[in-house]
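Task: sequence in, structure out. Protein: Prepilin-type N-terminal cleavage/methylation domain-containing protein.
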Amino acid sequence: MVSVRRKAGFTFIELVVVILVLVLLSLGAAPKFLDFRDNAKIAILEEIAGAMHNGLALVHSKAAVEGQDSAVGSIVHAGVTIPLYNGYPSVDGSDTFRQLNTQIQAWLDIDSVSLTDIKINNDAAAFFVDKSSRNNQIYLFFAEDLADKKVSFKCHIMYQNITTENGYEISVETDDC
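Result:
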């Protein structure tokens, strides 16, 4: 009679094959997990844009109540004087980064600092405010993106007071998030 020995464990080749399969599976899944961070940043920017719309509606309502909703005016909101154009916050490119940050914080409760302050301390806040003086636009960037920020960097929110039906424009750029 022939005795049959039972194997106890895996052979070396079986272990290599199992490890190889696990590595291939993880390589396929890794991009999906890494994408969560990008998706989170995009969701945060979209959420802030929604909060901006709500804050702007509140400012416009207060401006209407105070008779400051047509042409040039101003209101005091949350202890800050906000310059207005047609009842919405007016962006003046000659304002300092700190002045614009203070105005944004009055109508949008957000953890932000000015571009000037974020350069001093990159951990000062989650976001920083930048501007385009020539175009009278305000930009809101993630503080962690300071090193990547340039004119063409697209992971931000832009606010601009314009002469349209809404009186303002908010755009969310997420290509580089």
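Strands lie at 72-77, 80-85, 88-89, 112-114, 127-132, 137-142, 156-161, 168-173.
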